[in-house]
Amino acid sequence: MKLSNNEIEFSEEAQRMVTPESSEKRVAFKDKVAFKGKKVLLFDLDGTLIDSAPDLALAANLMLAELQMPEFSQEVVRSWVGNGAKTLVQRALSGSIEISPELDAGYVDRALERFLQFYQANVCNETQLYEGVRETLQRLKDRGYKLTIVTNKPEQFVTPILKSFKLNEIFELVVAGDTLAKKKPDPAQLNYVCQQLSVSVQQCLMIGDSKNDILAAKAISMESIGLTYGYNYGESISIFQPEIALDHFSNILDVLS
Asked: What's the whole-model pTM score?
């Protein structure tokens, strides 16, 4: 994983967690699916393990306030999250999920720089673990699975979040958005995990909340689990046909043999 040039202060509040909107522990598609022969589990970060929308919304509104533009509620900004920082900034500047074609590229780049600075200063203020994440990850590790993170988030933000929740020691490998030249939905990060841990695609399972996770997995015929509670732009994760869709993170324990 590439080293960051910046050191980021972080809090040690490790017990925060949030309940997904769907608290019903329902397994979608099939009553039960057992994934067999898996050795490595690849987890997305935002919308899968953590709800980072509150801090992203704060950074976006601090940027907008500095630019003397209207601010937006956390729920509105939440609906813009999921396609990366630049897209979030473009949506905030447009005041809509639809990006204005009139946005000046230089203006967007300057706004993005300020957004990233504000986010770096507030990267783990209100970010929370989803319910059941810590316990489920530990049980999976105890079962002998190798756990990895594959995220489009830059490493300078990933590292302090993992340290804040004391999860940095549980993962064998972290592949951030700037580790490689390409990121999801391109499968390069998934292939990288296979190479680094000397496992086949068939021995891996991608777990995430957005179409980018599922599309990256399908591109190399890796099986996947879709989670229904994250940031998938208002679309059902089932549309993209993961092997199974789950409403609760802890249901992962039920479908791994």
From this structure: 0.86
